[in-house]
């Protein structure tokens, strides 16, 4: 899961429903912009439902297990790496790599997020889960999607890029997998919010990073 900052008032974000957050995410997706409002609503509901159903399936198989232990049971190593979390304008917390399957956690990215979740915010946004639980769970959805036989959620809704006569050039919508992965984490870990809310801390996280780098170099 890589993160780009998006501006929105904070209180609106924390009280937004998963559906509203999903729609906001689709608005930022270049290809989803080609879908009409009804299709976007349907795509968001399908992505949220797929994430929740996938989580229920794994929860039934592994009752009570934390996310990283479910990953271990599925033979997906969780590796903590110390790389710079910032690549271009993207702040990285975690990512799934399929060959061989593994989950990378950017420890510096996550530590900065934890610093930003002050004044009871962590409990309000994450309940009893830790940031690591949330990101491991999110990436587990990408793993579950990779190994199952059904079409990925990103391909179930397609936008037409170009139409010439009967010929259509269509594309999937990658953001749907992110909406589903968030819904998966919310359902698996019983989170109070869809973890998309954490993205809105990226500007705060980057501010912390800049300040600590300044302190370090002075
Ligand atoms: Zn993701």
Characterise the protein shown here.
It is built from 10 helices and 8 strands. With 218 residues, the protein is of the alpha+beta class. It has one domain. A 3-stranded antiparallel sheet has the order 1-4-3, with no helix packed on it. A 3-stranded mixed sheet has the order 2-6-5. A hairpin with a 2-residue loop joins strand 7 and strand 8. Helix 2 (18-27) packs antiparallel against helix 9.
The major sheet is characterized as: 3 strands, antiparallel
Mean pLDDT level? 88
Tally of domains:
1
Give me the oligomer status: single chain
Q: How many angstroms does the end-to-end distance come to? A: 33 Å
In total, how many beta strands?
8
**Alpha-beta content class:** alpha+beta
- DSSP helix fraction: 40-55%
Give the helix tally.
Answer: 10
Portion in strands: 5-15%
Detail the poorly predicted runs.
none
Question: Major sheet: order of its strands?
Answer: 1-4-3
Shape: globular
Small-molecule binders here are:
zinc ion
Helix and strand string, N-terminal first?
EHHHHEEEEEHHHHEEHH
Radius of gyration: 18 Å
Q: Could you give a quick summary of the protein structure above?
A:
This protein is an alpha+beta fold and 218 residues long. Helix content is 53%, strand content 14%. The chain contains ten helices and eight strands.
Topology, please?
Layout: E1 2-3, H1 10-14, H2 18-27, H3 37-61, H4 67-73, E2 78-81, E3 86-87, E4 90-92, E5 94-97, E6 102-106, H5 107-116, H6 121-126, H7 131-147, H8 153-156, E7 159-164, E8 167-171, H9 175-189, H10 202-217
Parallel strand pairs: 2-6
Antiparallel strand pairs: 1-4, 3-4, 5-6, 7-8
Bound molecules: zinc ion.
């Amino acid at each position: 899961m890589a993160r780009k900052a998006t501006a929105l008032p904070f209180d609106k974000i924390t009280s937004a429903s998963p559906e509203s957050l999903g729609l906001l995410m689709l608005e930022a997706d270049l290809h989803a912009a080609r879908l009409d409002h009804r299709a976007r609503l349907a795509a968001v509901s399908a992505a949220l439902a797929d994430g929740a159903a996938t989580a229920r399936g794994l929860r039934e198989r592994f009752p009570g297990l934390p996310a990283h232990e479910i990953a271990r049971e599925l033979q997906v190593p969780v590796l903590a790496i110390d790389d710079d979390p910032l690549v271009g304008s993207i702040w990285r917390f975690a990512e799934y790599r399929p060959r061989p399957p593994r989950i990378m956690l950017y420890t510096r990215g996550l530590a900065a997020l934890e610093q930003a979740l002050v004044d009871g915010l962590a409990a309000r946004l994450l309940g009893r889960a830790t940031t690591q639980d949330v990101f491991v769970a999110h990436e587990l959805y990408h793993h579950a999607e990779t190994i199952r036989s059904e079409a990925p959620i990103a391909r179930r809704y397609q936008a037409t890029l170009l139409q010439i006569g009967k010929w259509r050039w269509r594309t999937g919508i990658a953001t749907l997998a992110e909406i589903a992965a968030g819904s998966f984490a919310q359902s698996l870990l019983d989170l109070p919010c869809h973890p998309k809310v954490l993205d809105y801390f990226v500007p705060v996280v980057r501010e912390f990073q800049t300040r600590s780098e300044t302190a370090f170099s002075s």
